[in-house]
Amino acid sequence: MSLVDWFEEKHRLKLLTTPKPKYPESDPSKGLWTQCDNCESMLYVRFLKQNQRICEECGYHLEMNSTERIELLIDPGTWYPMDEEMIPCDVLEFFDQQSYNDRLEENQVRTGLTDAVQTGIGQLNGITIALGVMDFQFMGGSMGSVVGEKLARLIEYATDNSLPLVIVCASGGARMQEGTLSLMQMAKIASVLQIHQVQKGLLYISILTYPTTGGVTASFGMLGDIIIAEPNAYIAFAGKRVIEQTLRQEVPDGFQVAESLFDHGLLDLIVPRAILKGVLGELFELYNAAPCKKNISKSI
């Protein structure tokens, strides 16, 4: 039995024994028309979705939810999600303008997700990969305990089964409602990535989208063997205003977009969304054909 067949059977049995989540599937994009964030052109939502949420007028890459990204990258009928039953809890009993529990339930109902990341196994152009996709529409893609645990489990599964790993980042950083618990996820994910990349010699590709900031940038976002960004993606640790207030110096416009980071050597590639799947497929084919791959595995 192949790995995919085994995972499919496991997922089928899980569906038979696990009750369905109470949160309905929903589409956050409501209405017939939307406006481009860059050129302010009015765009027909139906055509925009067919165009992978790329503005027809200026080519700007608009925000994309995690389900759409999975459909963009994974071959139809080959996606098997992991750890869907994991739901965050309010350990600190955090309350600002509303309780953390109320915020969670509001976002779960609105997005149809249990937290700000989807993880699973699928095939990209026939190659089995482990994929994690963050969703900015769920509390700004913030990284809490569940996000960190789901990504850590995905990486461990990829390591145990010698699968290449892809994580699509879209996050405002650590989740303040979970305090230090959210910051601990940075070290946890980095530690399992070290085993995946260094000890096992397996491939990890990080894809940075608009926006990737805070603790995600400071940890697994920048730890990829290959770091790819979408055009004009906002990538930073702290925002422009925070940097200016801290350093008391004016920061030039555009220094935190993907093109500026690429010019300064922080990124490997800037790949438009329309050809991203093809580029990833070629990278995986090159990786599988690398003569040093087996030698690395044997030497460890």
TrEMBL record:
<dbReference type="InterPro" id="IPR000438">
    <property type="entry name" value="Acetyl_CoA_COase_Trfase_b_su"/>
</dbReference>
<keyword id="KW-0443">Lipid metabolism</keyword>
<keyword id="KW-0862">Zinc</keyword>
<comment type="subunit">
    <text>Acetyl-CoA carboxylase is a heterohexamer composed of biotin carboxyl carrier protein, biotin carboxylase and two subunits each of ACCase subunit alpha and ACCase plastid-coded subunit beta (accD).</text>
</comment>
<dbReference type="GO" id="GO:0005524">
    <property type="term" value="F:ATP binding"/>
</dbReference>
<dbReference type="Pfam" id="PF01039">
    <property type="entry name" value="Carboxyl_trans"/>
</dbReference>
<dbReference type="InterPro" id="IPR029045">
    <property type="entry name" value="ClpP/crotonase-like_dom_sf"/>
</dbReference>
<keyword id="KW-0547">Nucleotide-binding</keyword>
<keyword id="KW-0479">Metal-binding</keyword>
<feature type="zinc finger region" description="C4-type">
    <location>
        <begin position="36"/>
        <end position="58"/>
    </location>
</feature>
<comment type="similarity">
    <text>Belongs to the AccD/PCCB family.</text>
</comment>
<keyword id="KW-0275">Fatty acid biosynthesis</keyword>
<keyword id="KW-0808">Transferase</keyword>
<dbReference type="GO" id="GO:0008270">
    <property type="term" value="F:zinc ion binding"/>
</dbReference>
<dbReference type="GO" id="GO:2001295">
    <property type="term" value="P:malonyl-CoA biosynthetic process"/>
</dbReference>
<feature type="binding site">
    <location>
        <position position="55"/>
    </location>
    <ligand>
        <name>Zn(2+)</name>
    </ligand>
</feature>
<protein>
    <recommendedName>
        <fullName>Acetyl-coenzyme A carboxylase carboxyl transferase subunit beta, chloroplastic</fullName>
        <ecNumber>2.1.3.15</ecNumber>
    </recommendedName>
</protein>
<dbReference type="GO" id="GO:0003989">
    <property type="term" value="F:acetyl-CoA carboxylase activity"/>
</dbReference>
<feature type="binding site">
    <location>
        <position position="58"/>
    </location>
    <ligand>
        <name>Zn(2+)</name>
    </ligand>
</feature>
<dbReference type="GO" id="GO:0009317">
    <property type="term" value="C:acetyl-CoA carboxylase complex"/>
</dbReference>
<feature type="domain" description="CoA carboxyltransferase N-terminal">
    <location>
        <begin position="32"/>
        <end position="300"/>
    </location>
</feature>
<dbReference type="GO" id="GO:0009570">
    <property type="term" value="C:chloroplast stroma"/>
</dbReference>
<dbReference type="InterPro" id="IPR011762">
    <property type="entry name" value="COA_CT_N"/>
</dbReference>
<feature type="binding site">
    <location>
        <position position="39"/>
    </location>
    <ligand>
        <name>Zn(2+)</name>
    </ligand>
</feature>
<dbReference type="GO" id="GO:0006633">
    <property type="term" value="P:fatty acid biosynthetic process"/>
</dbReference>
<keyword id="KW-0150">Chloroplast</keyword>
<keyword id="KW-0934">Plastid</keyword>
<dbReference type="GO" id="GO:0016743">
    <property type="term" value="F:carboxyl- or carbamoyltransferase activity"/>
</dbReference>
<comment type="function">
    <text>Component of the acetyl coenzyme A carboxylase (ACC) complex. Biotin carboxylase (BC) catalyzes the carboxylation of biotin on its carrier protein (BCCP) and then the CO(2) group is transferred by the transcarboxylase to acetyl-CoA to form malonyl-CoA.</text>
</comment>
<dbReference type="InterPro" id="IPR034733">
    <property type="entry name" value="AcCoA_carboxyl_beta"/>
</dbReference>
<keyword id="KW-0067">ATP-binding</keyword>
<keyword id="KW-0444">Lipid biosynthesis</keyword>
<keyword id="KW-0863">Zinc-finger</keyword>
<keyword id="KW-0276">Fatty acid metabolism</keyword>
<comment type="pathway">
    <text>Lipid metabolism; malonyl-CoA biosynthesis; malonyl-CoA from acetyl-CoA: step 1/1.</text>
</comment>
<comment type="subunit">
    <text>Acetyl-CoA carboxylase is a heterohexamer composed of biotin carboxyl carrier protein, biotin carboxylase and 2 subunits each of ACCase subunit alpha and ACCase plastid-coded subunit beta (accD).</text>
</comment>
<feature type="binding site">
    <location>
        <position position="36"/>
    </location>
    <ligand>
        <name>Zn(2+)</name>
    </ligand>
</feature>
